[in-house]
Design brief:
Length: 82
């Protein structure tokens, strides 16, 4: 057994360990990415639902204001006012 053989075994072991550590690290990062994506997606859905509700309320208020102004206009015309 020469010194070259020992060096090759140690280098191969080092690179095998580095590859294994890289694979485990990528797996953990992928899991973290999926978790953060789910959290951000849920937050976006909640914000969208809140905004959608506010827009619906504004549309109802506008519709009520429009219908009441149309009703007042029709009453004025019914009374003979221009």
């Amino acid at each position: 057994m020469g010194i070259g053989y020992v060096f090759r075994v140690r280098a191969a072991s080092f690179f095998a360990g580095a590859a294994t550590a890289s694979a485990v690290g990528l797996y953990v990062l992928h899991g973290d990415y999926q978790t953060s994506h789910q959290i951000l997606s849920q937050q976006a859905k909640e914000l969208f639902n809140t905004l959608d509700g506010r827009i619906s309320e504004l549309e109802k208020l506008k519709q009520n204001a429009t219908s009441s102004s149309n009703q007042q206009s029709s009453e004025q015309y019914a009374d003979g006012l221009p």
